[in-house]
Amino acid sequence: xxxxxxxxxxxxxxxxxxxxxxxxxxxxxxxxxxxxxxxxxxxxxxxxxxxxxxxxxxxxxxxxxxxxxxxxxxxxxxxxxxxxxxxxxxxxxxxxxxxxxxxxxxxxxxxxxxxxxxxxxxxxxxxxxxxxxxxxxxxxxxxxxxxxxxxxxxxxxxxxxxxxxxxxxxxxxxxxxxxxxxxxxxxxxxxxxxxxxxxxxxxxxxxxxxxxxxxxxxxxxxxxxxxxxxxxxxxxxxxxxxxxxxxxxxxxxxxxxxxxxxxxxxxxxxxxxxxxxxxxxxxxxxxx
Length: 288
Description:
This protein is α/β, with parallel strands linked by helices.
């Protein structure tokens, strides 16, 4: 085990940001933290690496409480990126190389054209690419990545995930937060946080096991969407198909019939996105 947070709780005044959460990271695995903004993901990461002190619970990095020596063995990419915005990309690389006494980071080709410009003058996507390259530059044993692909184009996101998988294959542990749920499915294991609590953990099938969904098809799909929404049923559109999360076929059919809508309805496996939405809005509908 590379890192663990056991029973972590963090309060800010009367607000409980993280409530009795336990998560471990092992060598060679990618742990994904998912959940809405405010779920407690960033607060948990900061406690895990010793930047914030938990009000309750214990943290270990590499078998001991977090300290400066342990933090030199990890690569941390915060949401704010941690770059020096008045310095150029090259100067950021030189600084990090000096701090860690490591070889200079190998910048991706997309940064070569702007490597002499101040970081503040390059786009957010390139800033994230720079921050990720610096995070890897000293060959850390644990990667802690907070929303690393936010604001990055799809091709660059795919390349970043390739590198994450390469790092895990080489035996490094990875813990990453993301709001892209399709990306989350690439993780070895997921931890779903909602309102500061750990609601479920495991692979995608484990997280969706307690949820349900119904697929509705109708020529009058717009009217059907309105009827279902008016009944308080959580709905999502997939083209002209309607997915109803957290409900059963009989309830959906009765609701549509009461609204005078002719439609087909069948039970389908729930998606990860539907499960997350249910946990955020109506956790009683999910039996995880």
